[in-house]
Automatic annotation (TrEMBL):
<feature type="transmembrane region" description="Helical">
    <location>
        <begin position="165"/>
        <end position="184"/>
    </location>
</feature>
<feature type="domain" description="Sodium/calcium exchanger membrane region">
    <location>
        <begin position="225"/>
        <end position="365"/>
    </location>
</feature>
<keyword id="KW-1133">Transmembrane helix</keyword>
<feature type="transmembrane region" description="Helical">
    <location>
        <begin position="244"/>
        <end position="269"/>
    </location>
</feature>
<feature type="transmembrane region" description="Helical">
    <location>
        <begin position="133"/>
        <end position="153"/>
    </location>
</feature>
<feature type="transmembrane region" description="Helical">
    <location>
        <begin position="7"/>
        <end position="26"/>
    </location>
</feature>
<feature type="transmembrane region" description="Helical">
    <location>
        <begin position="219"/>
        <end position="238"/>
    </location>
</feature>
<feature type="transmembrane region" description="Helical">
    <location>
        <begin position="66"/>
        <end position="88"/>
    </location>
</feature>
<feature type="transmembrane region" description="Helical">
    <location>
        <begin position="319"/>
        <end position="341"/>
    </location>
</feature>
<protein>
    <submittedName>
        <fullName>Ionic transporter y4hA</fullName>
    </submittedName>
</protein>
<dbReference type="InterPro" id="IPR004837">
    <property type="entry name" value="NaCa_Exmemb"/>
</dbReference>
<feature type="transmembrane region" description="Helical">
    <location>
        <begin position="290"/>
        <end position="313"/>
    </location>
</feature>
<feature type="transmembrane region" description="Helical">
    <location>
        <begin position="348"/>
        <end position="365"/>
    </location>
</feature>
<feature type="transmembrane region" description="Helical">
    <location>
        <begin position="32"/>
        <end position="54"/>
    </location>
</feature>
<feature type="domain" description="Sodium/calcium exchanger membrane region">
    <location>
        <begin position="32"/>
        <end position="186"/>
    </location>
</feature>
<feature type="transmembrane region" description="Helical">
    <location>
        <begin position="100"/>
        <end position="121"/>
    </location>
</feature>
<dbReference type="InterPro" id="IPR052946">
    <property type="entry name" value="Alkaline_pH_Ca-Antiporter"/>
</dbReference>
């Protein structure tokens, strides 16, 4: 009976989320329905985590982490473009920048910080491969600087904007960096991104302590399809409840850009939960793969897609960060470097990253 309930839950919740998305799309929801849709959203997030872990178990690391990061980012790009097209004009000119920056801060400080804290509380000094984590963080820092910091200092266009040629270069450079990293992660130096044992040795897929047999190809394919449905439902339902969130934000006197932070938190919940669960199984490398891989994909895939879409999107495209945001980004990178260098983490580092996330959220509310 328990297995049957689990199968129904894992398949039924994504279906419920899809039905709720279709039924509520474009509708203005009353308060009660907003709460119900919110509950469905949480259930779909949990289902997405389950199916992501099934697929990850089948394909092994680091492919599983890469799959979830890319899947969420592809849908995130679709959401940004949809909102920019529907909103149009100057009001959406900073949407891509705000969403990408929020994703970077949430993944590098929030997801990684929570995983570090949970892992160190349970295993005291969890280990990971500093070469893999350091390489990932370096690419994140380079991508963020090229696409989000430089526009604030270029002079070809007034304001923090790239000229068309500069935007094209940033898009191509971002894509090349992302592809180069993926090839390094999956082909060139795959061992750098595998979980590490307490002795510091990389754990191969066949060396897992629990020796749980991977799911069949059919089961993994079904979970892959349900994962896509779940992710679409997560993003779509987040967009559906965003007017209610926006109204609440406005009523509280908070800047409207904070709505993007709330939606980013909802969209990244599957990766956050997956990273936390991996940390609690002493798979800190998997957690960092998810955190840094998500940040990398959010920039390396989003910016090229937005650059292409900007040909027909209405209004300007503002990518340059403000001075406060640049300070937070620099501090995040510096702290991240000190976190990954030793190849092991303590609870202090987890708390430090979470405080940086709290600073980002606080300053987004009270700039």
């Amino acid at each position: 009976m328990t297995a049957w309930i689990r199968r129904w839950w894992s398949a039924g919740i994504p279906a419920v989320g899809a039905v709720a998305l279709i039924a509520t799309w474009g509708q203005k929801l009353p308060g009660v329905l907003v709460v119900l849709v919110g509950l469905v959203l949480v259930g779909v997030v949990l289902a997405a985590v389950h199916h992501a872990e099934v697929v990850a178990h089948r394909v092994g690391e680091p492919f599983g982490s890469l799959l979830l990061a890319v899947a969420v980012t592809v849908i995130e790009v679709g959401l940004i473009i949809t909102l920019m097209v529907s909103g149009g004009g100057k009001d959406t000119s900073t949407l891509a920048r705000d969403t990408v920056f929020a994703a970077v801060m949430i993944t590098v400080n929030g997801i990684a910080g929570l995983a570090v804290l949970l892992g160190s509380l349970r295993f005291r000094l969890p280990r990971f491969n500093s070469e893999g984590a350091g390489a990932a963080l370096a690419v994140v820092a380079a991508l963020a600087t090229l696409t989000l910091v430089l526009p604030a200092f270029t002079t070809s266009r007034p304001g923090p904007q790239f000229s068309p040629s500069q935007l094209g270069f940033a898009a191509v450079a971002s894509l090349i960096l992302y592809v180069a990293f993926v090839l390094t992660q999956t082909v060139g130096h795959r061992d750098f991104f595998l979980p590490v044992s307490a002795s510091g040795k990389s754990i191969q897929p066949d060396d897992e302590e629990d020796h749980v047999a991977p799911p069949s190809g059919r089961a993994a394919a079904i979970s892959g399809g349900l994962l896509v449905v779940s992710l679409v439902a997560v993003v779509g339902l987040a967009k559906t409840v965003s007017p209610a969130i926006e109204a609440g934000v406005a009523a509280a006197g908070i800047p409207s850009s904070f709505v993007g932070v709330v939606i980013a938190l909802l969209v990244l919940l599957p990766e956050g939960l997956a990273a936390s669960r991996a940390a609690l199984r002493e798979r800190m490398q998997t957690s960092l793969n998810l955190a840094y891989g998500s940040a990398m994909a959010s920039i390396g895939l989003t910016i090229p897609a937005i650059a292409i879409a900007s040909i027909w999107l209405p209004g300007p495209l503002t990518l340059g960060l403000g001075s406060t945001q640049i300070v937070l980004l620099v501090l995040t990178v510096l702290v991240g470097i000190l976190t990954v260098m030793p190849g092991r983490v303590t609870r202090l580092q987890g708390v430090l990253h979470l405080i940086l996330l709290a600073a980002f959220v606080f300053l987004a509310i009270n700039p």
